[in-house]
Amino acid sequence: VITCDGSVQHLSCDTGLINVMSAIYGRTDKRICTTGRPFSEIQNTACVLKIPIISARCNGLRQCEFKTDTLGSPDPCNGTDKYYNTTYNCIKDVSVTCEDGYSTLDCGNDVIQIINANYGRTDSTTCSHGLPDTILADTNCYASGTLSIVATKCNGKSSCTVQASNTTFKDPCFGTSKYLTVSHHCLPHPVRNDFLFPIHSIHFKKSNALQSRSTIFGAGVLNIHNANYGRTDSTACSTGRPSSQTSKTDCYATNTLTEVTNRCEGKSSCVVPATNSVFSDPCYGTYKYLSIKYSCVVAITDSDAHTDRGLHT
Ligand SMILES: *[C@@H]1O[C@H](CO)[C@@H](O)[C@H](O)[C@H]1NC(C)=O
Ligand SMILES: *[C@@H]1O[C@H](CO)[C@@H](O)[C@H](O)[C@H]1NC(C)=O
Ligand SMILES: *[C@@H]1O[C@H](CO)[C@@H](O)[C@H](O)[C@H]1NC(C)=O
C-alpha cells in the first residue's frame, strides 16, 4: 500500500493477520504521488528511510491505521516529495482459542516459529457466542508478554500446547472474556550443517583466505550448537585430495566452539575464516574443514516482551 505524505495509511487483512515485510518512507518511483508536485520534487528516486514502527504497531492485527505525517523523521531527502510504501502479507496460520481452552500448534517434521500472539480481546465477535455484551465490550485488551511466553514454549519445537488462561498469562482485563490468538510459521528443522572449504597448507593461506570463509545467516539470531575445525570423516571436502590428507578422521581443534560462539552467537550473521590462524592446526598434514551446527532463533528482547502488540523483528 502506498500513501502520499501526510495522508492516513490503512492496512487490513480479510483473513489472517498483518505481517509487514517492508515499510519505507521516501521516493523510489517518479510516477507515484506526483499530483501538483513540481518536477524538481519528484526527480530524486533514491530516497529510502525504513520505518520499523509500522511493523511494531501493525503486525499481528487484522487491521491497522495511522496518520503518516509524524513517522518519517529524520527527513531522508529534504526537497524531495516523499510517500509511504508498506508491503505486507496476511498470515493465515492463525489459531484462536477461547479462554480456558488449549491451543495446540503442530508443524509435523518442521519446527514452530511464533510470529505474534495475544491473550486478551481485540474485537467483540471472536469467542462471543452466548456471552453477555458486558464481558465483550473491552476490545483493547492485550496481555503484555504473550508473545514471549508463547515463543518460549513453542519456538524450535515440532508441536506445543498452550492454555489460553489467566494463569498462563496475567489477566490483562479482569471481567472481560478473553481469547488467545497465535500466528506461526513452520520452518524446516533448524539444525543446519555448514561445511567450509578448508585451508590445509600455510602456503595457500593468503590466496585462499577469502574463499575459506563462511557467512551464515537466517531469520532471527544465530544459536551455535556445535562446531569443529579439523576432520571427522573422510568424504567431506575431499575432492581432489590424496587420501593421505583425508584419512585422519579424529581431528578436533578444541577451541572451535568457543571461537565460533564468540564471533556468531546472538548475531544475525557472522563470518568465520576456516584457517589455522583462527583455530591453530590440530592435525598437521590433514586437509581440514570447519563444520558448524547452528539454528536461527527468534530474538525476544525485553522491550518486545513488554509491548502490548508484541514487536517482532
Ligand atoms: C514499494 O516497495 C516495494 C518493496 O520494497 C517495491 O518492490 C516497490 O517497487 C515499491 N513501490 C514504489 C512505487 O516505490
Ligand atoms: C530543507 O530545505 C529547505 C529549503 O531548501 C531549508 O530551508 C531547510 O532548512 C532544510 N531543512 C533541513 C532539515 O535541512
Ligand atoms: C482467571 O480466570 C478465571 C476463569 O475465567 C476467573 O474465574 C478468575 O477470576 C480469573 N482470575 C483473575 C485473577 O483474573
TrEMBL record:
Organism: Electrophorus electricus (Electric eel)
GO molecular function: carbohydrate binding
Name of one Pfam family that matches: SUEL_Lectin
Key words, A-Z: Hemagglutinin, Lectin, Repeat
Ranges that cross the membrane: none
Record-given protein name: SUEL-type lectin domain-containing protein
Keyword check for Cell inner membrane: no
Record domain SUEL-type lectin: where: 3-91, 94-187, 221-297
The keyword Transmembrane is annotated on this UniProt entry: no
InterPro entries in UniProt: Lectin_gal-bd_dom, Lectin_gal-bd_sf
